[in-house]
Backbone:
RNA sequence: GUGGCUAUAGCACAGUGGUUAGUGCAUCGGUCUGUGGCACCGAUGACGAGGGUUCGAAUCCCUCUAGCCACCCCA
């Protein structure tokens, strides 16, 4: 502030780190995505579930795993007023499984198919498409372990992205059940024991904490080693192997293009068996593998682990921010919100009163009405009408008040007609329906050059 | 948590040690209490915060904060 010392710089409230406002003009992207999500949910028979944002901390510790970064350092955990440790949900599956058990959904016809969208929280360092409060959608199928379920869920994920208009690839793998996992981890350890010096620091840590993660390290040297490292699919037990083969057969039958990706693993502890991700197709040829926009897999042990009966399940989740980024990158047309049908402009106090009630009448008649009742001049009102892109402006001033009439102005060609005020609603409806017919017959709404002949009252082209 | 880059008005930018920090778009008002898209005129509004160097700092240095990008993690 270069002013006098008298006024202190104002401390203005500011977004918390990693938080983001989704402003009105952004909403159409989000609406677009949510509409497609609702669409596939409906066609695939999934019902919406909303679980609380706040849960017992232990729910996430027991499901995601104490050792994971998500639990260890990224959770928003705190003691509530009764000294209970609670956490903002960092992901969606745990809450859904909790609800499944808590509400006895195992007594419903199985499988139970549910989906969700909503905010999640991780105390992470913000980055492209990564916020501390972020939005995910997820689909979960509980109570059925048949491989056909896996394949159809992947089909759903693929369909969703296709309907959004994104070119994607499906990456599939199986990480095996706890039994195969032990054998595999041992093999992996043996492989890396003699190569410890060749791997990066992160990988040394991974070897201890999360050996599977060694496989998708991005350091070139590690990558090279990972190429020849044992693969999870070679260590699957008989049951897991058979399951996975069936899954792939079903995928073949569905003719989804998929990539068998031996280096695909999951980050959360609860995953077993089938694992998959959806990747956007890289824009340029030799780019690094892009961030997954969906990821998921089987979690056949989780329900039991959280205190329910042994129950197979599978699910996936996707990041909304990442989708929005891809949609923008690809210039996918998500459409603009439709403009209002009419604008009501008024001039003078009496007209303003009348306009206020006319607005209500029009609204009740099902019209989308815009206005700037607080403005006095007609000019700013016309400017607003123009900016909003409305088809017709209804103008009522002193003269019209005396005559019991109202002006209809066609905003495209400037032609105005005086109409009996009593007939305004039917008149405007007639015109709008005519336009709608035109709009559906052609791709673009053509401006009608010649005004309709049946109502040739006072035409004033301006 | 680690590293790199950045921070000037609501937005996009200019200003590289020297008057009162500019421009475009946007916003509000006027030209024009009865008419939008065009034009002209005017107004609002900013050097992220703190400290240092200097006669003098938006400009140089330090710290903090935030943003972006990558790692990490994950979707």
Residues:
């Amino acid at each position: 502030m270069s002013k006098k010392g008298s006024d202190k710089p104002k401390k203005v409230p500011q977004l918390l780190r990693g938080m983001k406002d989704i402003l009105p003009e952004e909403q159409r992207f989000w609406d677009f995505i949510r509409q497609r999500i609702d669409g596939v949910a409906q066609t695939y028979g999934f019902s919406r579930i909303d679980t609380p944002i706040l849960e017992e901390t232990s729910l996430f510790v027991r499901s995601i795993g104490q050792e994971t970064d998500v639990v260890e350092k990224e959770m928003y955990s705190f003691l509530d007023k009764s000294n209970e440790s609670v956490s903002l949900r960092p992901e969606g599956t745990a809450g859904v499984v909790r609800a499944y058990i808590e509400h006895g959904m195992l007594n419903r016809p199985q499988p139970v198919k549910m989906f969700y969208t909503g905010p999640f929280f991780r105390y992470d360092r913000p980055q492209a498409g990564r916020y501390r409060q972020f939005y995910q959608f997820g689909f979960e199928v509980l109570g059925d372990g048949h491989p056909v379920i896996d394949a159809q869920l992947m089909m759903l994920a693929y369909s969703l992205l296709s309907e959004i208009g994104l070119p994607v690839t499906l990456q599939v793998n199986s990480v095996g059940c706890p039994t195969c996992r032990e054998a595999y981890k041992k093999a992996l350890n043996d492989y890396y024991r003699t190569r410890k010096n060749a791997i990066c620091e992160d990988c040394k840590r991974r070897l201890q904490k999360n050996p599977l993660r060694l496989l998708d390290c991005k350091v070139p040297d590690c990558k090279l080693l990972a190429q020849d490292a044992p693969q999870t699919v070679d260590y699957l037990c008989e049951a897991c192997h058979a399951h996975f083969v069936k899954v792939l057969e079903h995928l073949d039958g569905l003719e989804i293009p998929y990539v068998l990706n031996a280096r695909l693993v999951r980050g959360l502890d609860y995953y077993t068996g089938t694992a998959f991700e959806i990747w956007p197709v890289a824009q340029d040829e030799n780019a690094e593998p892009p961030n997954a926009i969906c990821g998921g897999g089987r979690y056949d042990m989780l329900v039991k682990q959280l205190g329910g009966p042994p129950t197979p399940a599978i699910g996936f989740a996707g990041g909304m921010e990442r989708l929005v980024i891809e949609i923008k990158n690809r210039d996918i047309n998500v459409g603009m919100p439709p403009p209002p049908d009419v604008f009501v402009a008024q001039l003078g106090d009496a007209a303003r009163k009348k306009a206020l009630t006319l607005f209500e009448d029009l609204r009740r008649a099902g019209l989308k009405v815009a206005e700037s009742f607080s403005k006095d001049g007609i000019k700013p009102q016309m400017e607003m009408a123009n900016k909003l892109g409305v088809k017709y402006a209804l103008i009522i001033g002193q003269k019209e008040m005396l005559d019991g009439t109202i002006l209809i102005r066609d905003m495209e060609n400037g032609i105005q007609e005086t109409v009996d005020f009593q007939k305004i609603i039917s008149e405007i409806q007639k015109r709008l329906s005519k336009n709608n017919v035109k709009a559906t017959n052609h791709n673009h709404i053509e401006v009608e050059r010649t005004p309709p002949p049946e109502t040739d009252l006072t035409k004033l082209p301006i």
Summary: The first helix of chain A runs from residue 27 to 43. Residues 170 and 258 of chain A are 5 Å apart (CA to CA).
